[in-house]
Write a structure and sequence with these properties.
Length: 252
């Protein structure tokens, strides 16, 4: 009985020590300059990206893992990743807070989340190649989004001229805002929810397993050759749809 009590007390002490160690957070600044307009996120780290007058980067989280965060810049491309070798008992608590004057491309290739807010410009490309999550709210004339991994992507396109969506993975893409033209291609097992993206004209090409929901004010052109189905809201006056696979088109 005494051995059991001692073992229990030891386990509690170890857990408490582990908790204290896990809560030993710190932060440090990393060098970055304003030339960076392309950001690549890799590894096990979350990113918060905001627009500001000058470039700045702060890494925070578990003090033990801060040296494992690798930041490199080559010209206009900034890479933020982690060099974690071996088996990790738990997910490291690592966070990158990045401020840039301008942004042209964001790629998430790891398992962390990327939260991008407040940027404006002519054109932006955003890609999710890993298993993380991307949240984007901005104001670009042309927006090009690619979901090639197994994560999720949530986009507020603001008021755009053209939005291009490409889904080749197994994740989910949710899009809102307004756009004159929407061009969407689904070739994987992922799904598209663009009902809250009010587009004047929609072109949708579906060859995969996933389904799609879109909103078209005036015209909709749909081509279905896979297994997924599509639902079109907005009651567009011009409707063209062909379904050569097992999916179907529903007009709402």
């Amino acid at each position: 009985m005494q051995k059991f009590v001692n073992a229990t007390m030891l386990a509690v002490a170890l857990c408490a020590a582990g908790t204290v160690q896990a809560q030993d957070n710190a932060s440090e600044a990393r060098a970055v300059d304003g030339r960076a307009v392309k950001v690549v996120l890799d590894g096990v780290i979350d990113l918060q990206l905001r627009q500001g007058a000058s470039a700045a980067l702060t890494i925070s989280g578990d003090r033990r893992y801060l040296p494992k965060v690798v930041v490199t810049q080559s010209g206009d491309t900034l890479r933020i990743g982690t060099d974690l070798k071996g088996i990790q008992m738990s997910r490291p608590n690592l966070r990158a807070e990045l401020t840039l004057p301008n942004l042209a491309e964001v790629v998430s290739a790891g398992v962390g989340s990327a939260d991008v807010q407040g940027f404006k410009g002519e054109q932006l490309r955003v890609a999710l190649d890993g298993a993380g999550a991307v949240r984007l709210a901005g104001q670009y004339r042309n927006l090009d989004a690619h979901l090639n991994g197994a994560g999720s992507m949530t986009i507020n396109a603001g008021h755009a001229e053209r939005v291009d969506l490409n889904l080749r993975g197994a994740g989910q893409m949710v899009v809102s805002g307004q756009s004159r033209d929407l061009h969407a291609r689904l070739g994987g097992a992922g799904s598209l929810d663009a009902q809250q993206l009010q587009a004047d004209s929609v072109n949708l090409d579906m060859t995969g397993l996933g389904g799609a929901t879109v909103y078209a004010k005036s015209a909709a052109n749909l081509r279905l050759s896979g297994l997924g189905s599509a639902t079109v809201y907005g009651k567009p006056a011009t409707r063209n749809a062909s379904a050569r696979g097992l999916g179907h088109v529903k007009w709402q």
